[in-house]
Amino acid sequence: MATRPKMQQGLLQFPFEWGGRREGAGRKPSPGRRRVAHRKKPELEKDSPLHITIRLRDGLPSMRRKAEYRVLRAAFAAGKERFGFRLVHYSVMGNHAHLIVEADDRRALRRGMSGLMVRMARGLNRLWRRTGGVFGDHFHEQRLESPRQVRHAIAYMLHNARRHRIELPIPLDYYASGPWFDGWNIELEIVGHESWEVPVTAAQSWLLRRGWRKHGRLSPFETPAHAS
């Protein structure tokens, strides 16, 4: 029987200044990109995990900057657990964000996402000194139905910056929820975020709490595949 590798500890310090791609990071919406279809969504089972994608309207500044990220973290912290909705993981890119959430039912998902997106939009508009819409369309959702699919989605999200070829000074992405993730395959001592209000909440579904671990914990150096 294979033995489990010995856990090792590393120190990860979040920097105050860092390089890499910033403005406009991430794939740009191309002309004619198909928008989210406005069709009736299937009902959700209680605690159903979902992969959510939301996009900025064209022409707005990047969300992947320090000031914008402070605004988004505050919005996440305030709206992470309301109305039977829970924000469990996230990744912020230049013009879009990925979330893994749970919702007790479709009404909980609708109310929770509406509140979260309103907080995000208001905060960004205050920062940008503008008014008007911030997000270009309804959010896109994908139901996560198996342990393997959930593990794949978490890896895709926490390592999404690497997929976009964004240079990172440490293995973990500063603009994702990796510091609050307890599923790494090595022990990491992460410093530099202790004063932040926690922007995510604990999962309640079996798939997000334990089920995905059947396929192995995540490595901070893992290369994610495309989401499926």
Task: Considering the chains and any ligands shown, give keywords for the structure.
Alpha-Beta Plaits, disordered N terminus, single chain
**Shape-level CATH architecture:** 2-Layer Sandwich
Low-confidence stretches: 1-8, 16-38
Largest sheet: 5 strands, antiparallel
Provide the structure class. Answer: alpha+beta
Strand order, main sheet: write it out. 3-4-5-2-6
Q: State the helicity in percent bands.
A: 25-40%
| Tally of structural domains | 1
Give the beta-strand count: 7
Can you offer a commentary on this structure?
With 228 residues, the protein is α+β, with helices and mostly antiparallel strands. The strands form two sheets. Strands 3-4-5-2-6 form a five-stranded antiparallel β-sheet, with helices on both faces. A two-stranded parallel sheet has the order 1-7. It has helices at residues 66-79, 106-128, 147-158, 160-163, 206-209, and strands at residues 9-13, 48-55, 81-82, 85-92, 96-103, 140-143, 187-191.
In short:
This protein is α+β, with helices and mostly antiparallel strands.
Q: Which secondary structure elements does this structure contain, and how are they paired or packed?
A:
Layout: E1 9-13, E2 48-55, H1 66-79, E3 81-82, E4 85-92, E5 96-103, H2 106-128, E6 140-143, H3 147-158, H4 160-163, E7 187-191, H5 206-209
Parallel strand pairs: 1-7
Antiparallel strand pairs: 2-5, 2-6, 3-4, 4-5
Helix pairs in contact: 1-2
